[in-house]
Amino acid sequence: MKAPRILNPRNIVNRMEQAHCLFTLIGCLIVVVCTAAGVIMNLTTIYDENFDHMGIRTFCMFTVNSNILAAAGMFMVLPYAVDGLRMKNWRLPRWLVVFVFSGVTCVALTFLVSLFLLSPVKGFVLIFTGSRFFLHGVCPLLCAAAFCLAISDRPLSGKDTVYAVIPVLIYAGLYFVMVVVIGEKHGAGGIFTV
Description:
With 194 residues, the chain is mainly α. The termini are far apart. Helix content is 73%, strand content 0%. It has one domain (10-158). It contains six helices and no strands. It has helices spanning 9-44, 62-87, 94-122, 124-127, 131-151, 158-182.
């Protein structure tokens, strides 16, 4: 008769770390691929009767820029997740956690604006179909899930929160200058959109 196997707490922790790294790796890969799909769809769409920012002008939209920022952060997490799977040691540098937090903050804002402001006005189906399915829905939700469940393993300070809103403030400042100060009659109003 075999002796019962005793569970080693170290093995349990190692398996949890591996599952943590695997979840992070899969979540980050999906965000990067979905963001690329959404941006490529916008770039290759010459005309959309509902949105005038297609083609190269897609980079004027906060939605696109915030998704690219979030995907860039998730892309930078990938080597750490792979290393965590190989070495069974998972730790992200603080600067990267703050960078990802910044991207997640931006796409969360995009998601909330799309859900509560744009979809009641333009319709849920219009706001969450095509490239907007990825950029308004999938990527923001996956970014938030990956960040909350896997990437952020320590409390963030108030200073980190200030860093996280810098991209939003930069875009808001540019938007204000282009739309309010320069204005539409001088050709700048339609360039930047939410």
